[in-house]
Specification:
By secondary structure, the protein is an alpha/beta fold. It is built from eight helices and twelve strands. β1 and β2 form a beta hairpin.
Length: 338
């Protein structure tokens, strides 16, 4: 019995050591934060809901020192520790204050709540006790556009941020969001969108479906917020946790919004884009901006697919983005703030 006990203890020890070793290797694989970069956890409020953010900034900033700022906006299923977490230290090292965040109901951010039963009359403090359901992992263009504007509002309130030099970066689904935001928020002075979905290729049938869905949702004939419905299909089915609500995208076309953009815009596409027709998305928006005389650069990553921009195309895309923001945000340092 003693021998069995010793063997069992040794076996457990091997498991624990193995787990510890695996954890150590995983931690070692994460790039260390550069010594000259500080990272802060921040809370951003949007319509009363807390969003989680990671703020990256150069260490040792003086109270009166003002730097340009960049907001990173995720693509489908992305969170602040992903691409934004990789880019944050890079941009901070290059003299920016950068902010990565999670949309409401994504990642570490709080969720909007839906009352499952009819609400009772609020008490004297306006409070009610109800059973609720958290709204998680929704692709909701209207809400996420609002989230981005809240993050821009947050970043311009940072002591060391020059509010006249705010840029936004977005990837994939987030690429369409930042284009729409740049068209509708005058505080945004420069944009970079990589492998962006701009809503190109959606025809009358898709619009008709969205309005029909909106009617059914309003009348309670289907889920007002998709939980069982709204699952992604085809090549996007890999995002099993995500739900899409076309009714909430009505009126939020990045393609159409691009007609109003006046600020410098960089668009990076993948030559072998497999999730959408890049000619009807990124390239089309670039052509619109060029026709209006807006500073625009359209770059195609040769031989790359959509997801290559996060892997073998990451360095090329990041270099272009640093150069773009450097040209249109950093060169403004010599100019007086408006």
């Amino acid at each position: 019995m003693k021998l069995r006990a010793i063997i069992f203890i040794c076996f457990i020890g091997v498991i624990l050591l193995g787990a510890a070793d695996a954890a150590a290797k995983k931690a070692a694989a994460r790039p260390a934060l550069p010594e000259n970069v500080e990272k802060r956890d921040v809370t951003i409020f949007c319509d009363g809901v807390r969003m989680a953010g990671d703020l990256y900034l150069p260490k040792g900033l003086k109270p009166d020192e003002k730097l340009p700022a960049i907001v990173f906006c995720n693509g489908t299923g992305g969170t602040k520790g992903g691409t934004g977490g990789r880019l944050g230290p890079i941009f901070a090292t290059n003299g920016y204050i950068a902010l990565a965040f999670d949309y409401r109901g994504w990642g570490a951010s709080d969720s909007k709540l839906i009352a499952l039963d009819k609400q009772p009359r609020p008490d004297a403090k306006g409070e009610v006790n109800v059973k609720t359901r958290a709204v998680r992992w929704q692709m909701d263009f209207a809400d996420q556009a609002m989230d981005i504007r809240a993050v821009v509002s947050f970043i311009v309130g940072e002591t060391n941020v020059d509010a006249s030099r705010v840029g936004i970066w977005g990837s994939s689904y987030g690429g369409g969001l930042v284009v729409w935001t740049a068209a509708n928020d005058p505080r945004v002075k420069c944009v970079a969108a990589q492998v962006p979905g701009m809503g190109g290729g959606r025809g009358p049938a898709a619009e008709k479906y969205a309005y029909s869905l909106a009617t059914k949702q309003a009348r309670g004939e289907t889920e007002s917020v998709p939980f069982e419905t709204g699952k992604m299909t085809g090549k996007m089915a890999t995002y099993a946790q995500m739900r899409v609500n076309p009714a909430k995208g009505i009126g939020y076309s990045a393609n159409e919004a691009s007609e109003k953009i006046k600020v410098p815009t960089l668009i990076i596409d993948a030559e072998n884009e497999e999730l959408m027709d890049r000619h009807q998305n990124g390239e089309k928006v670039a052509e619109v901006l060029k026709s209006h005389g807006v500073p625009v650069h359209y770059h195609v990553l040769k031989g790359m697919t959509h997801y290559s921009v996060y892997a073998e195309g990451f360095a090329e895309a990041t270099k272009l983005e640093l150069e773009w923001f450097g040209k249109y945000l950093k060169t403004a340092e010599a100019l007086p703030s408006k």
